[in-house]
Amino acid sequence: MTDAVYRKMCEILAKRGGLYPGMDIPEFYELVQALFSPNEAAVYNAIPKGFNSVGPIATAVGKSEAEIESVLEDMANKGLCNAGVMGGTTYYAAPPFVPGIFEYQFMRGTRTERDKELAKLIHTYKEAVEAKRGAQKITYPTMRVIPVDRKIDAGQKIHTYDQVAHYIEKYDPLAVSTCFCRHEAKLIDENDSCGKPDEVCMQFGMGAQFVIERKIGRRIDKTEAFEILNKCEEIGLVHASMNRQEIDFLCNCCSCHCMILKTALAQPKPGLAVNSGFQPVWNSELCTACETCIERCPTDALVMGENKVLKVNPDRCVGCGVCATGCPVEAIVLVERPGIPIPPKDQKALREAVKASLSE
Question: What letter would DSSP give residue 218?
Answer without folding.
Answer: E
